[in-house]
Amino acid sequence: MDSYNPIEDCASDLRYIIRLLQDHVSERYAPNIRIIVITSLPARRRNVETVWFNNCTKPYAEMSQMVAKQIGVPCIDLYSTIEKLAASAALLEKCGEYQKYLKDGIHSTMDENLVVHQLIR
């Protein structure tokens, strides 16, 4: 069995978290913070002979964008940004640029964090 949260549950959880921070009657109300939704990253998998790209995170990235738009908060599309950076800098089958941004196929690196920093500014 795969270990993941159904997309509908993630959308509901994301809405809940944002509303907790925005609702002035919530004990978690944070009037002085800027809420920015950041999409999930593209996933990469590798075995001994091949590298393949797993689109399992793309629906979650799209869901994050949709929820942010519905609620009216900004969203950084990190999924598409990292894919474009990796595609423009290396052949995807070699996976070189993905390693620069995703050290183990899903978790970000300092290079990816710098991209987020640039996009937020």
- In which range does the helix fraction lie? 40-55%
Shape call: globular
Largest beta sheet: strand ordering: 1-4
Contiguous runs where pLDDT drops below 50 for at least 5 residues: none
Q: What would the average pLDDT be, to the nearest integer?
A: 79
- Which assembly state applies to the chains in this document? single chain
Largest pleated sheet? 2 strands, parallel
Strand content: 5-15%
Measured on Cα atoms, how large is the radius of gyration? 16 Å
Order of helices and strands: HEEEHEHHH
Structural class: mainly alpha
Distance between the termini: 40 Å
Number of strands: 4
3D architecture notes:
The structure is a single chain. The longest helix has 16 residues. This protein is globular. It is mainly alpha-helical. 49% of the residues lie in helices and 10% in strands. The protein is built from 5 helices and 4 strands; from the N terminus they run H-E-E-E-H-E-H-H-H. Strands 1-4 form a two-stranded parallel ribbon. A two-stranded antiparallel ribbon has the order 2-3. A hairpin with a 4-residue loop joins strand 2 and strand 3. Helix 1 packs parallel to helix 2.
